[in-house]
Design brief:
The structure is a homodimer. The first copy, chain A, is α/β, with parallel strands linked by helices. The first copy, chain A, is built from 13 helices and twelve strands. The longest helix of chain A is centred in the middle third of the chain and has 17 residues. Chain A is elongated and about 90 Å long. Chain A binds a DNA duplex through helix 3 and helix 5.
DNA sequence: TTGAAAGCGCTAACAA
DNA sequence: TTGTTAGCGCTTTCAA
């Protein structure tokens, strides 16, 4: 408030506060435009002038204010990333992919965790909607479309991960869920399983819907029964455990001999429930998860799972945001949202075996 | 560029782009100051005027630009959070605590993951240093002090998690590491263990240093030998596994009967190495971890561990940033950095038992 | 209770 | 190669 009245110009030997581009310009006897040019490495500055400006910047300990710059350029160097549950090891991998790729573009990441909770979801999206970001990435496949539409802006590129949506969105990066489920089912069927259950995640999730449909299709193709073998639950360890308890309650002859789970967290729950019920894995129950979180290989028995390219999802999403052309396939229409489809991979480990 | 020349004023029925406070002011026949007052709920506006302004805002679909506001107020409503490794389940919990508490203050979180890598660390800090944030939280206990000093600004409150530093910093939220180690050691000693090893984390980490010192002190107090029973490694599953292999190579009579690990991830590695080596846990080897990550209870055997109040660390850090007075103890000097010390808790589960 | 006007700190035409 | 001059969109005295 009283600063400008009492502050001696071009003197910053004390605390380097409030040094502006004007101070530098004055100190270097140039205009602010020139200082700006130097800061932004514009080539049209005489070497000698540049030196002078650089020296002044150094001397005054000038740090350009991102605020002024942001307003002038209408860019912030920040992107918003919305995820469903940072506590589920799937997401940290995605976050890492996003964060590091963003960093390589000189961009920071605003993280919003909806905590799989509708209220927090609203709060997170409101917060993000009020900010000016250079782009947004949404990785929360059960987020209602209306909510996304609410924050989507024509001027702000939006990339979705594992979720499709009618425009306006720049595009989607997703995983071929059907291929993953097919591979898992083929593996189990090849081992000799006939009674296979599917332990699904949130019914509202697009990923869940696609996996379930693929599961049913695979059963139909192989002539397996599916009725009664489909359950949905919260995609957590506890959710998996509770659901698995129900699944394992049947008489041995009627119980599934294998279960395909929505994610690895739930598989851990199944493992626990099986142990509790005295059902040996994989001898009396085979388990296939989804994701291949780092923990999956460390479990006992090590988990067979459909690996998702989690980090890659994040990496690609950012590249797409920045219009990296290698991300668009040749026949992409100019105005149609791009779809980048990544392939999952079945990782066979110790939690699957032929039925007893 | 050409917008201002061709755009008809106060007409936004098409795409709601570029509507500014001036448009609203014109449409409502008031000044921009009044519009600003209405937006910020300043009480001095006549009810009738307020209605008119609100109507105009609605009609024009006006969304105030955060850019202009940020510049005018010199605040951004964003805080920076630096963490060491989002892939280690400890950090997502901290992140959640920070993110949700920040959201309750209407603040967003810029996340920087150093990935326990020196180069990325530098990149992350540079990025953060260039931004205008309302506060910073650093949760990366092995980050070199010089690097922190580089981005610390007198004007920006800085809170550290699990790491102390001479000013300038508003304060630290940490866990009483010594108490945690003491509890773990008391537990093992009470079970009858005499040969206890410590499997440590990064030597540069302050947390590691404190735990190691506390371990040595506890051994000394109990008259136990410690030489040879101390190893350090990368704080990951693999790091723990590799280190544990070395630890388990000794002849049975010389091997430790119990090991205290730097974190749960390493404990998982130990579990794997023990299994590999045919050493039964807990019968022939007891394991105590640190953190109590969600996975800890799901392991087999369920992990005894020194629970860290991870989420609480994040919550408290944000509160401290915002000067919540309940965060300062009574005798806090005005200018001394605040120290909030949280207590860990030993959670005894199945990975510990009396030695064979 | 409202308005006029001066910034906030930077960028970018356009001119020189 | 450099400077002049408008903004960018909002907040906030100060005066009316």
């Amino acid at each position: 408030m009283a600063d400008e009245a009492t502050e001696p110009v071009e003197d910053a030997d004390d605390t380097p506060r409030g040094v502006t581009i004007d101070d530098v310009a004055a100190a270097a006897h140039v205009s602010t435009a020139t200082v700006s040019r130097v800061m932004n490495n514009r080539p049209v500055v005489a070497a000698e002038t540049r030196e002078r400006v650089l020296a002044a910047i150094e001397r005054l300990r000038f740090r350009p204010s991102s605020l002024g710059r942001n307003l002038a350029t209408r860019r912030t160097g920040a992107i918003g990333l919305v995820i469903a549950d940072i506590t589920n090891p799937f997401y940290p991998e995605v976050v890492r992919g996003v964060e590091q790729t963003a960093a390589s573009y000189g961009t920071s990441v605003l993280l919003y965790d909806t905590a799989e909770d509708s209220e927090r979801e609203a709060q997170a999206l409101r917060l993000l909607g009020e900010r000016h970001v250079d782009g947004m990435i949404i990785c929360a496949s059960r987020l209602p479309p209306e909510r996304i539409a609410l924050i989507a802006r024509p001027a702000v590129p939006l990339v979705l991960i594992n979720r499709q949506l009618t425009p306006p969105s720049l595009g989607t990066v997703d995983v071929d869920q059907e291929a993953g489920v097919r591979a898992a089912m083929a593996h189990l069927i090849a081992l000799g399983h006939r009674r296979i259950a599917y332990l699904g995640g949130p019914p509202a999730s697009q990923v869940q819907q696609r996996r379930l449909a693929a599961f049913r299709a695979a059963c139909a193709d192989a002539g397996l029964p599916t009725d009664g073998g489909v359950v949905t639950a919260t995609p957590t360890i506890v959710g998996g455990k509770d659901a698995a308890r129900a699944l394992l309650r049947g008489r041995p002859g009627r119980r599934p001999t294998a279960v395909l789970a929505y994610n690895d967290l739930m598989s851990i729950g199944i493992l626990m429930a099986a142990h509790e019920a005295g059902v040996a894995v994989p001898d009396h129950l085979s388990i296939v998860g989804h994701d291949d979180i780092p923990m999956a290989a460390a479990l006992h028995p090590a988990l067979t799972t459909v690996r998702q390219p989690m980090r890659e999802l994040g990496v690609r999403a950012v590249r797409l945001l920045y219009g990296d052309h290698s991300e668009r396939t040749a026949h992409d229409a100019q105005d149609a949202p791009t779809l980048i489809r990544l392939q999952p991979q079945l990782v066979a480990r110790a939690s699957t075996a032929p039925p007893a």
